[in-house]
Design goal:
By secondary structure, the chain is mainly beta. Helices cover 12% and strands 42% of the residues. The strands form five sheets. Strands 3, 4, 5, 6 and 7 form a five-stranded antiparallel sheet that branches. A four-stranded antiparallel sheet has the order 8-9-10-11, with no helix packed on it. Strand 10 and strand 11 form a beta hairpin. The longest helix has 23 residues. It is globular, with a radius of gyration of 21 Å.
Length: 234
């Protein structure tokens, strides 16, 4: 069996499992609606849940997708992401939310677009945001006040998989993953020269890894140091 066939079968199984999970956790517990509103769905922004009496592909694809929760050092709170696609506006929205584990209450930290990977940082939170020209911004925010955040630094490329390690008071090591060019510099697709053709020339038999073409740019880890001065990280 080829890799492409395995990938297609895996995708179908994932969709079936998602549909089964959505049916057992949402639709079975939703309140029945009258016949005039049976074909509509209601989105509650505070809880980011969808209630409906009919299951459709649109309902499945527009259901909120929650990321894994990251607890704080005390284990009393957790931060997570929620993304939702709207078929009415044809746009994707993303949120970073704070969960009080004991009460179950969820607090919105930010709903700015293109944000991801919130992590606990001494005195607040740190998350990633897509910047201009393919760059990535390191955003530091206050978990107690929505909109109270600033740019602590900018990385000249796409990064992910943020890991933080406290080294001492006001010093935190940060490690991320990103593509490295053959010269060792961080790869930024937005700054690469535009090619006039999509043709590719390979001198090996392995030209694809799952759904991506193999290129000269390789995955690598990058590390740096965040320091706090005058109540701001940089």
């Amino acid at each position: 069996m080829s890799r492409s066939s395995v990938g297609i079968i895996t995708t179908i199984l994932a969709i079936c499992l998602a549909a089964f999970f959505y049916w057992t956790t949402v639709l079975r517990h939703s309140q029945p609606w009258d016949s005039e509103s049976s074909n509509t769905a209601q989105l509650e922004s505070a809880e980011m849940t969808v209630h409906t009496s009919h299951f459709t592909p649109e309902i499945l694809l527009s259901a909120p997708r929650r990321g894994s929760a990251t607890p704080d050092p005390t284990g009393k709170r957790a931060v997570y992401t929620v993304s939702t696609y709207s078929f009415e506006s044809h746009k994707k929205t993303s949120e970073i939310r704070l969960l009080d584990i004991s009460s179950g209450q969820s607090l919105l930290i930010t709903d700015e677009g293109n944000t991801s990977e919130p992590n606990w940082l001494e005195g607040g939170l740190l998350w990633l945001k897509e910047g201009k020209k393919g760059a990535t911004e390191l955003i530091v925010g206050n978990e107690a006040r929505k909109g109270d955040h600033y740019v602590a630094g900018t990385v000249a490329g796409a990064i992910s998989n943020v890991k933080l390690k406290t080294l001492g008071p006001g010093k935190v090591a940060i490690v991320v993953s990103g593509k490295a060019k053959p010269d060792g510099k961080l790869f930024n697709e937005a700054l690469e020269p535009k090619k006039l053709t999509t043709a590719r020339l390979y001198d090996s038999t392995i030209v694809r890894h799952w759904d991506q073409y193999v290129t000269e740019n390789k995955n690598a880890y990058w590390y740096g140091l965040l320091e706090k001065s005058h109540d701001r990280w940089s």
